[in-house]
Specification:
By secondary structure, this protein is α/β, with parallel strands linked by helices. It folds into three domains: 114 residues, Serine Threonine Protein Phosphatase 5, Tetratricopeptide repeat (Alpha Horseshoe); 78 residues, Serine Threonine Protein Phosphatase 5, Tetratricopeptide repeat (Alpha Horseshoe), CATH 1.25.40; 175 residues, Rossmann fold (3-Layer(aba) Sandwich), CATH 3.40.50. It is built from 17 helices and seven strands. The protein has a seven-stranded mixed β-sheet with strand order 3-2-1-4-5-7-6, sandwiched between helices. The radius of gyration is 22 Å and the shape is globular. The two termini are 36 Å apart. The mean pLDDT is 93. It binds S-adenosylmethionine. The site of S-adenosylmethionine has 23 residues, from helix 14 and helix 16.
Amino acid sequence: MSQAPRRQSWAGGARKRPCRYDPAPASALLTLALRAHRRGEWPEALALYVRALEDPPVSLDAALNLGSLAAHLGHRALAQRALALALPLALADARALRDLAIAHATLGELGTARALLSHCVALPDAPEGARLALIRVCLALGDSALAIPHSREAVARNPDSVDAWLALHRAVFDDRALSPAIESAARALALAPEDPRVQRCLAHATALQFHAPRDLSDQDDALQFCIQNREIHTRAFASKHHAIAHARDARVLDGPIVELGVRHGVSTRVLAQAQGAQVHAFDSFEGLPAAWNSLPLGAFTTRGHLPSVPPNVTLYVGWFEQTLPTYCAHEESSPSMIHVDSDVYESARCALSHLGPRVRPGCVLLFDEYLGNAGWRDEEHRALTEAIVRFHWSITWLSLSWLTGQAALRVTAVGDT
Ligand SMILES: C[S@@+](CC[C@H](N)C(=O)[O-])C[C@H]1O[C@@H](n2cnc3c(N)ncnc32)[C@H](O)[C@@H]1O
């Protein structure tokens, strides 16, 4: 079963493998650090990069590889110090600037990443991948105004690039005016008729346009699910930011917004823009409690570092199974919205089994990884299906975003349990 082309990875800059930027021969310490990094001996690599940076002048290779690796491993403070050292040296080097920006994106610092990538694409030797990274960052920030012209520029500069046409497809995707998205996917298909990513993007947009699962007979079932469960008001988005904002603004109840899975606080800050609402945000800040898809146990850890969040956000630190019972015992109000972004089935099940009894008609639920991962029917979908049965919920779908994997719904009725 093929997946939607969507999970955005900033890997490439915040990479597991090192990159050379400076043509000068590496010092002895830097050589050792690069070797350890290449072998996946990450603690050794971090320590050797730090030592290589102790003696001036600052080496761009040491600072940027350290910053990228530390960001990838969740060592936030170390990454920020190294990236600050790399910045002045990277400003004139397009490749280094791109990787610096991607490392900042890995830390959830999307505004900084956008600024650096905007600078990077203006350099004469900017790699084309930098513009695609800029488009991804803009979409993650909900900044279509910048994503669209950069996508048009990407296809103008490189009309034979399937990735550029797919970036344009996402940037112009509007479920109420689908022609530009269909046209860009059709241009990608003309270049790569056998590419399943492209086939599915076109099939998805066409099916939305004609309100029917056309040409989906052999397509994956997540795509079928989206098309078949659509109601007249069900929206579809190509950016996580837009799907979160839509669900947030669809709230009709007065209670708090509850978020499960915070990490660097990217989605938390979008939720916190809700007028007059409190956000109660839960995370261990120790990463995933189990391996999930291709990610290992502990992926997304911030090593206990808490993100900076607006004053209307309260962070509840710890594993859900410990924090949610205490929360439910003390918090009397019903949530107006629940955002589940904790990836693994057990975490979603735990969240819904504690919060489910609090859910009242009108409550909005948003799932971040609902659709399209290889085992999606056994993950958030399964946890929701079980909650619907257990709490006798009736629901209506607010959005089914095959391109991002998100699904949002409103609970319209709650039965006796
Ligand atoms: C994908 S990240 C969240 C991303 C975040 N919402 C954003 O927009 O950047 C998933 C988070 O869920 C947390 N998590 C998963 N299961 C958990 C559990 N059972 N208890 C506490 N935290 C959990 C992990 O620590 C991780 O930070």
